[in-house]
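Let's sit down with a protein and look at its sequence and fold side by side. Please make up or recall a protein chain and show it to me in full. Label the sequence line and the structure token line clearly, so we can match residues to local backbone shapes. Go ahead whenever you are ready, and we will take it from there.
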Amino acid sequence: NINYMNNLLEEFGTIANMPKLQLIASRLTEYKIDGVANSMYRSLQGKITAKTLRVNAEILEDRVKEMTPPASLKKVHDKAIRSFMYFRKAAEGFEIFGNDETYDLRFRDRRVKQSYDYLEKTIEINGDILAAINNHRKLSQSEKFWQGLDRIQEKMERFYFSYEAK
């Protein structure tokens, strides 16, 4: 799913790789010629539109939420859910930015800035996810066994101390 996300961003085009303020600064700021800026925005989109990006982001987010990972990858799955949620929010913001008929200029500017922030968070989390998956795969069976045993011990200690406190 992370690879599919990356492919979507590549197909979305130049916009996903631009610095966040460059897109805002490059468009015209007068309301009366906002349509020109909007068509410029559409031309910066690649093979897919912002709407297609959003729809695919929603589908990917739903798929990730439906997955049932093994217990040892539960934390990684939680990160993946967060990553795909940020990706969807970014896609929603990109779609809003191009919708000059419904949203005013300032709101669209705020949303596209947030979109870039969400993309940064997504990329950071995806790096963590890939590192965790690679580390998980590199463990030998005995290391995985001892890691599981450590987790059981931690749970027992928490149970013991929480019972003591009552």
Helices lie at 2-12, 20-26, 34-44, 50-66, 74-97, 105-138, 141-165.
